[in-house]
Amino acid sequence: MIQIWAALPWAGPNAFYGVGARDLARRYESLGVTGVVQGDHPFIPTAPYTSPIAAMAAECLTVLTTVAAHSDRLRIATLVANVGIQHPLFLLRKFANLALIHGGERIYAGLGAGWSRRGFEAVGLEMPSHRERLDRLEEAVRLARELFDRGGADMHGDHVVASEVPLAPRPEVSPRLLLGGGSPRLLALAGRYADHLDLAAPSHRKSSNEFQRKLLTTTGDLEDAARAARDTAADTGRAWDEITLSVLMTNVVLCAESQVASEERAICEAVALPPRPLGDCPFVLVGEPQRMADAIRERQARIELSWIVLPHDAVDRFCSEVAPLLT
């Protein structure tokens, strides 16, 4: 059966600490959720800095660690932590310590190049070009592999230097390395280095924003992306199944069959996209439980998905109404 993960929202972190985190972990465990993910932003990327919600972005590793501490089995993943605004060693050390505490099989070290210009500029940094950010990400990923696989690293890249650095204390089972994206270079990096790849909209789907690009993406697009990553893996001597795959859902709407067209139209209008059918969009699920279960089975077969990641507010109904149809 495909694993079900929950994406914690960027805003409202108070719900994920103390009693709230304990209750959340227990509820997810009872629902059969495998793990939780959260993005890495100092504030909500699209909110003006004077907005109330701009001050409520949660620090991802603090929240994820708190949830993990209240569970014996829930896995945690950053989706993804920005390596562009700090030396990646400090971030990787945190993941290694979490693996030591909770077990490496529960920890996914999700790394990314950073995409929010405001996130860079808020701390006095100019956001590098896409190529430069991926250059730095590649060096960070190489450092992660050296530390996690060998227990130490000695590398001198153009962006990342780690001179005779040990990973200590070293966990018995290292964190799993996660990358997320859809550009050809990111897919190649995942094929060479990653344990897990979260598939994003491909770069050839041109639009004014990421939300539109996702709605324009087809299941066939992600089939091609998965194949590209795994072909690279094979070229470097890795087995086909060494990389597991996931998709982060942007919209999950349980509704009657008669309401599907209107719900799909509303999803498109919310991101200023002309109305279009979304049945073949791998980031969207709309309809009755059986329709969703059938769509997931098809995508799982075609893309070879290991997980789907659901929005936080869709988890309860999905797990009670759709998940039983997937067993």
Description:
The chain is 41% helix and 18% strand. The protein has 327 residues and is α/β, with parallel strands linked by helices. Helix 6 (184-193) links the parallel strand 8 and strand 9 (196-199). Helix 1 (18-31) crosses helix 2. The longest helix is centred in the middle third of the chain and has 21 residues, at 130-150. The model has no long low-confidence stretch (mean pLDDT 91).
How much of the polypeptide forms β-strand, as a percent range?
15-25%
Low-pLDDT stretches are none
Neighbour order of strands in the largest sheet: 1-2-3-5-8-9-10-13
Number of helices: 11
> How helix-rich are the residues, as a percent range?
40-55%
Mean pLDDT, rounded to whole units?
91
The general outline is globular
What structural class do the secondary elements suggest?
Answer: alpha/beta
Quick one: biggest sheet? Answer: 8 strands, parallel, barrel
- Gyration radius (Cα, Å) is 19 Å
- The tally of beta strands, per DSSP, is 13
Task: Calculate the terminal CA-CA distance, rounded to whole Å.
Answer: 6 Å
Order of helices and strands: EHEHEEHEHHEEEHEHHEEHEHEH
Short structural summary:
The chain is of the alpha/beta class and 327 residues long.
Descriptive key words:
327 residues, alpha/beta, eight-stranded parallel β-barrel, globular, two-stranded antiparallel ribbon
Write the layout of secondary structure elements.
Blueprint: E1 3-7, H1 18-31, E2 35-38, H2 60-69, E3 75-78, E4 81-82, H3 88-102, E5 107-112, H4 117-121, H5 130-150, E6 152-156, E7 161-166, E8 176-181, H6 184-193, E9 196-199, H7 210-216, H8 219-235, E10 244-248, E11 251-254, H9 260-270, E12 284-287, H10 289-303, E13 307-311, H11 315-322
